[in-house]
Design goal:
binds zinc ion; 6 strands; alpha+beta; globular; 3-stranded antiparallel β-sheet
């Protein structure tokens, strides 16, 4: 698992060849491999999956509704997100829901 796919990774706004790891608290490179990265992604992805009830796999281009399916995609090192469709959902909902 590379840093760019990790939940702790924050892309540098100016230099796309480097970023910042919130877990390590130091600069990292996007293609740097990290033994802790996949754990973070699993935790973050599973938490979001529980909240939303689905996840979008950026590698397969499919939406996952089943938690065992979700784990399968994660174990393959796929990047899953809810961000992709979150923006679309936002257009259907009226703003100012506070
Ligand atoms: Zn996948």
């Amino acid at each position: 698992m590379n840093c760019e796919n990790c939940a702790y990774y924050r892309q540098h706004p100016l230099y796309n060849f480097m970023g910042y790891c919130e877990k390590k608290g130091s600069a990292v490179f996007p293609d740097q491999s990290c033994p802790e990265a996949i754990q973070a992604v699993i935790k973050d992805t599973e938490r979001l999956f529980e909240d939303y009830g689905w996840a979008y796999c950026m590698d397969c281009g499919t939406i996952v509704f089943d938690s065992s399916e979700l784990k399968k995609h994660i174990s393959l090192g796929h990047s899953l997100t809810q961000r992709f469709l979150e923006d679309e959902v936002a257009t259907y909902e009226s703003p100012g829901g506070d």
